[in-house]
Design brief:
The complex is a heterodimer.
Chain A (H helix, E strand, L loop, with lengths): L4 E3 L2 E4 L5 E6 L6 E7 L6 E7 L2 E5 L6 E5 L5 E5 L8 E8 L7 E2 L3 E5 L1
Parallel strand pairs in A: 2-11
Antiparallel strand pairs in A: 1-3, 3-8, 4-5, 4-9, 5-6, 7-8, 9-10, 9-11
Chain B lengths: L3 E3 L4 E4 L4 E7 L4 E9 L6 E6 L3 E5 L2 E6 L4 E6 L8 E9 L10 E2 L3 E6 L1
Parallel strand pairs in B: 2-11
Antiparallel strand pairs in B: 1-3, 3-8, 4-5, 4-9, 6-7, 7-8, 9-10, 9-11
Classes of the chains: A mainly beta, B mainly beta.
């Protein structure tokens, strides 16, 4: 069965650079969630989208923005990167109101 | 205080043991309960999902929810070395209004099953 696809899988950036992470949800899933997982931490909710509209917002820094496109894929844009942004970034998808979220393999971002 | 508390372990058991993993939560609005398994450097994999108090069984796994005590458990029977991973409980409110179902996770319990 098709799963959530994330790209790139690994990304290395310098401080103050920008990064763009992409997420392709499971076919027919219309809701996308972004989570950040620091080393040894549990995933923390950042932001979610339903039908291309932002549906919920968590602890996402103002330096980050995201959007969902007409094909339901989503992009997380991160600017002015800081060392503390180094983490695993997961995307999850579900159908609207669905009770389960399916996670992608994650993008490992390292900020040097 | 975190909304969802989970003993981080680590937990080390011999192969074949019964494993008990637990979480407590504080928000009565939480209505849906999930257990995810996460291998190192991988995405969380959904193991169990339930929304009502009681037990739900799937193979060697049993999820238990006690809403009155705000306590959830995952039991693994006949544990195998391949079960070695981090187990995360995840809880959400009912989707609707301003919430579209974001998950709130516990800290995760690191489990090692040794042969």
């Amino acid at each position: 069965a098709a799963g959530v696809i994330q790209s790139p899988r690994h990304l290395i950036k310098e401080k103050r650079e920008t990064a763009t992470l992409k997420c392709y949800p499971i076919p027919r899933h219309d809701t996308v969630y972004w989570y950040q997982q620091g080393p040894g931490q549990d995933p923390q909710f950042l932001i979610s989208f339903y039908e291309k509209m932002q549906s919920d917002k968590g602890s996402i820094p103002d330096r980050f923005s995201a959007q969902q496109f007409s094909d339901y894929h989503s992009e997380l844009n991160m600017s002015s990167l800081e060392l503390g942004d180094s983490a695993l970034y997961f995307c999850a998808s579900s159908v609207v109101g669905g009770n389960t979220q399916y996670f992608g393999p994650g993008t490992r971002l390292t900020v040097l | 205080q975190k909304e969802v508390e989970q003993d981080p372990g680590p937990l080390s058991v011999p192969e074949g043991a019964i494993v008990s993993l637990n979480c407590t939560y504080s928000n009565s609005a939480f209505q849906y309960f999930m257990w995810y398994r996460q291998y190192s450097r991988k995405g969380p994999e959904l193991l169990m999902y339930t929304y009502s108090s009681g037990n739900k069984e799937d193979g060697r796994f049993t999820a238990q929810v006690d809403k009155s005590s705000k306590y959830i458990s995952l039991f693994i029977r006949d544990s195998q070395p391949s079960d070695s991973a981090t187990y995360l409980c995840a809880i959400r409110t009912r989707a609707g209004g301003t919430s579209y179902g974001k998950l709130t996770f516990g800290q995760g319990t690191i489990l090692t099953v040794h042969p």
